[in-house]
Amino acid sequence: MAIDLRSDTVTRPSDAMRAAAADADVGDDVYGEDPTVNDLEATAADLIGVEDALYVPTGTMGNQIAARVHGERGEEVVLDRKSHIYQWELGGLAQLSGLQTRPVDAGDAVPTPEQFESAYVAESLHRPGTGLLTLENTHNARGGVAVTPEAISAVAEAAHDRDVPVHLDGARLFNACVALDVDPSRMVRDVDSVLFCLSKGLGAPVGSILAGDADFVAAARRVRKLFGGGMRQAGLIAAPGLLALENVDRLATDHENAARLAAGLDDIEGLRVPEPDTNIVQVHTDDLGVEAEAFVAACEDAGVRGGAHGPHLTRFCTHLDVDRDDIEEAIERVGDAVETLRA
Ligand SMILES: *Cc1c(COP(=O)(O)O)cnc(C)c1O
């Protein structure tokens, strides 16, 4: 069977999650009457030390809701040019909320205060003004980089000095917290809203959490309805989400597996594989003279699935459905794929 390392979203719900879904106590969540959703929202808010939280179907919707709540039509959003919100959400800021993006090149995965300051524009007769700063942790496209809370606080302070709110796309927030051994409440202390996915490393089949203070979440609840995300007996899918929150500590296993995978692949001549911070492994194939698409195809033939994320960049992700034996096997198989490519 192929070892699927395309993403940490490919996991299948456990038997316990399926049983929890079947047995979930439900009600109409648009009326606020689904006890399982209410429990999930309260538990999630508690876990990261914020006032309130909102269950949303996807991470993308959560980010887009946050932008709509924080930003005013026409305003600019400062973000990293490699951020998910900028690259992979179909230009949603413009399409859904009339916001304009001002990307910066955050080489360290989050913009520095100086970068924010140079990107900031004050509102005037000619300029819309900066309405939002978004950050990402872990940073997906930069290689699952775990950003320190100090770096987040520094740029958040610069934004707040200009009265600009800060949203954190923490699709993999807990990967960062586990990797750096930082309490989630510290990680989100200085941001105005945070999104995290239940459906990635935590292993839930569906769902994300958008969190912040009570006023933010009340406004977000209205925008969720506007965007078509008000769900009815959503306890059926929220119940596995509650179990997913128990998977936070085991992310360390994914990180160890990623470290082993990276080391094993880096030993293969022609591959350059930096040591990962978390569960995302980036494989550079320029030394091999093979483009990512061709490398991915060869790996697929050898029984390992990955994704092309740049001309010579392939991404492999570890997750809860692959164990150490799978990783050792994947290293062997990628070695075979490289042999075929050389032949
Ligand atoms: C996956 C991801 C999202 C979006 O989550 P979906 O549930 O797939 O919509 C947002 N940001 C980052 C950094 C992600 O990796």
Descriptive notes:
The chain has helices spanning 15-23, 35-48, 59-70, 84-87, 92-97, 113-119, 149-161, 173-180, 184-187, 214-226, 235-244, 251-266, 292-302, 324-342, and strands at residues 3-4, 52-56, 76-80, 100-104, 130-136, 166-169, 193-197, 208-212, 280-284, 304-305, 307-310, 313-317. With 343 residues, the protein is α/β, with parallel strands linked by helices. It has a 7-stranded mixed sheet with strand order 2-8-7-6-5-3-4, with helices on both faces. Helix 7 links the parallel strand 5 (130-136) and strand 6 (166-169). Helix 1 packs antiparallel against helix 11 (235-244), helix 6 (113-119) runs parallel beside helix 7 (149-161) and helix 13 (292-302) crosses helix 14. The longest helix has 19 residues, at 324-342. It is globular and about 60 Å long. It starts with a strand and ends with a helix. The structure holds pyridoxal-5'-phosphate. Residues 58-60, 63, 84, 136, 140, 169, 171, 197, 199, 208 line the site of pyridoxal-5'-phosphate. Pyridoxal-5'-phosphate is lined by residues 58-60, 63, 84, 136, 140, 169, 171, 197, 199, 208.
Blueprint of the fold:
Layout: E1 3-4, H1 15-23, H2 35-48, E2 52-56, H3 59-70, E3 76-80, H4 84-87, H5 92-97, E4 100-104, H6 113-119, E5 130-136, H7 149-161, E6 166-169, H8 173-180, H9 184-187, E7 193-197, E8 208-212, H10 214-226, H11 235-244, H12 251-266, E9 280-284, H13 292-302, E10 304-305, E11 307-310, E12 313-317, H14 324-342
Parallel strand pairs: 1-10, 3-4, 3-5, 5-6, 6-7
Antiparallel strand pairs: 2-8, 7-8, 9-12, 11-12
Helix pairs in contact: 1-11, 2-11, 3-10, 6-7, 12-14, 13-14
Keywords: Lyase, Pyridoxal phosphate
GO molecular function: lyase activity
Domain Aromatic amino acid beta-eliminating lyase/threonine aldolase: 4-286
